[in-house]
Amino acid sequence: MRSQSLIPHFPVPALNVLLTQGGRFVLGAEPGSTFDLLVFYRGLHCPICAKYLLELERLAPEFASRGVQVVAISSDDADRAQQMATKVKASAVKFGYGLSLKSAREWGLYISTTRGQSSIGIEEPALFSEPGVFIVRPDGTLYYGAVQTMPFARPQFHDLLGAIDFAIAKDYPARGEYTGAV
Q1: pLDDT tier at 114 (50, 70, 90 boundaries)?
Q2: In which element (H, E) is residue 122 found?
Q3: Taking the model in full, what pTM does it have?
Q4: Which of 33, 106, 132, 160 could form a disulfide with 147 if both were Cys (CB 3.0 to 4.6 A apart)?
């Protein structure tokens, strides 16, 4: 069963993953000055993920100039995560790996089962999480979140940059926080 959605203004789940470049990413240990942008991707088997992460790498300096730390995360093992980082020529984006499916569920991500080889001939893991994009404040609370059941039609990073600019300029609050009766 999928967990309940995360709520803006409230703390997000813990996140502690190994990084392809060595060390660990521990959410909140060294947050971006403005936000952390967490991009959960399906894994090496996903050609749409590779294209999406190429765009993230291209725009990573723009995010950094706004005080946003960028991390791409999957449940892939070290080898597969390194292959994806190499494929997208990662230099500015940190690549986290080994995300447990339990942690993926805590983040509200959908879990899929393998269909064998993907369209690019890479074997899918037995179970893997579907995409999600989260913007987290330095205090560990959710600012923005989007999860998907499919690899298609993800939030565009150029749009997120515009949203971050607006949020900073207008001190715009996180929305969707109401949990009362309707």
Answers
A1: very high
A2: none
A3: 0.95
A4: 132
